[in-house]
Design a protein that fits this description.
With 406 residues, this protein is α/β, with parallel strands linked by helices. It contains 12 helices and 22 strands. The structure holds MU-OXO-diiron (FEO).
């Protein structure tokens, strides 16, 4: 893929391929490699570059630019996202294109200096409905923060109905044929990318999708994987479906109780807590033994839960691995507004329960109650306390109590 490729009249794809990459950002598998997409637009008032590429692919990127224009013709470099896979070639491009102004979102301003390693780069900040008129072409900017960094934004090329969406609608999927209607079936990569990059930001995604609805979209020029021109509606609707939150089951809020148990003591606590939560007719409690739960299932369950209760024994002054696995998969979820609490039986010191409570706070769960700890075998009275613990947690979820910061 060494030549610039025409996307629409005067709009060219000048991205690069990273076909051999097999793991992206430490956590994502990339069986088909990926691409770093960039675009060049010729207008009657000069050339615009949309995003750059990862630094190590700069040579190929600059060759494509040079095949289309001189650097002096470049008037604007629009950066929708400053992560290094898109800003790697920016410092060099800015040096070469001396007449160019960099366009960024306001949130990107403090990052630009660190990335550019210079104070000299001329830039301007833009937000929703700010326009750039370039004679025969008009670009409207759209604020779409947190997708998936705070500074991300999108833009819309009015005359050609092209949405430049940043990382949104991307896939880690390299195919030299570039366009969605020409490449192989990349649906798996599209969903996998959403799950790993966008899923924790569903609320912001819904806001962005509502903004995009104001525009007729013919083509989506994203930053990774196939350019979407055949059926953009399909991909927009998939994002809508995946981003719409459902934290109710049978019309009731869901509380999920996860536990691991060594001698059935934490399990007994879990079932008494379960009864306490279930006593509230507005809630539905579900209970899971973590040792038999796959990560994908954990994610689905966590996503639909308004409240999460985690029961753990303490083994060698720590919580066992399945508990940490549950907590680590939460990086792929939006936690905003969810309640969390921990409980467990212990023999000597019982640190695990406190560690989990503290981790829930770090993950930005609302943790309105102290953890519930019981030494060894719970008595009848202690099991009743667990029942009440479940009742009280349910009352926080139903808004009957005002939280205080613990
Ligand atoms: Fe493709 Fe968030 O960088």
């Amino acid at each position: 893929m060494n030549d610039a490729i025409l996307v629409k009249k005067d709009l060219y794809y000048i991205g690069v391929s990273d076909s051999d990459i097999r793991v992206f950002d430490i956590i994502m598998k990339t069986a088909n490699g990926t691409t770093y997409n960039s675009y060049l637009l010729k207008t009657s008032h000069g050339v615009v570059i949309f995003d750059t590429v990862k630094e190590e692919f700069s040579n190929s990127f600059f060759e494509k630019i040079e095949s289309l224009c001189s650097y002096d013709e470049i008037k604007y470099i629009i950066m929708h996202h400053l992560e290094p896979d898109h800003s790697g070639a920016l410092p060099e491009l800015a040096k070469k294109a001396k007449n160019a102004k960099v366009i960024i979102s306001p949130m990107a301003q403090p990052m630009l200096k660190s990335i550019a390693k210079t104070e000299d780069m001329e830039f301007e900040t833009v937000w929703t409905n700010k326009k750039l008129s370039l004679g025969n072409k008009t670009i409207t900017f759209l604020s779409t923060p947190n997708l998936h960094w705070p500074e991300t934004m999108s833009s819309y090329l009015e005359e050609d109905k092209v949405l430049f969406s940043g990382d949104v609608f991307g896939s880690h999927y390299y195919d030299a044929r570039v366009f969605d209607d020409l490449v192989g079936d990349f649906d798996y990569a599209f969903k996998y990318y959403y799950d790993h990059i966008m899923r924790p930001f569903k609320s912001d995604m819904i806001k962005a999708l509502n903004l995009y609805k104001n525009y007729e979209i013919d083509t989506i020029c994203n930053l990774h994987g196939p350019i979407i021109r055949n059926n953009p509606k399909k991909y927009i609707e998939l994002y809508e479906k995946w981003s719409t939150k459902n934290e109710k089951l049978h019309g009731k809020k869901v509380v999920s109780i996860f536990y691991v148990t060594s001698y059935k003591n934490t399990k007994e606590m879990a079932y008494s807590i379960y009864d306490g939560v279930e006593s509230d007719e507005n809630l539905i409690a579900n209970i899971y033994d973590l040792t038999a739960l796959d990560e994908q299932n954990m994610l689905e369950i966590l996503e639909e839960s308004s409240g999460v209760m985690i029961g753990t024994p303490t083994i060698n002054a720590d919580a066992p691995k399945p508990v940490w696995e549950l907590l680590s998969c939460m990086m792929l979820l939006e936690k905003k507004g969810k309640f969390g609490v921990s409980f467990g039986s212990y023999g000597w010191s019982g640190e695990a329960v406190d560690m989990i409570s503290s981790r829930l706070k770090d993950l930005k769960f609302r943790v309105p109650m102290q953890p519930k700890k019981i030494k060894l075998i719970p008595t009848k009275e202690e099991l009743f306390e667990c029942y009440e613990f479940g009742v009280e947690f349910g009352e926080f979820i139903n808004g009957k109590f005002t939280e205080i910061t613990l």
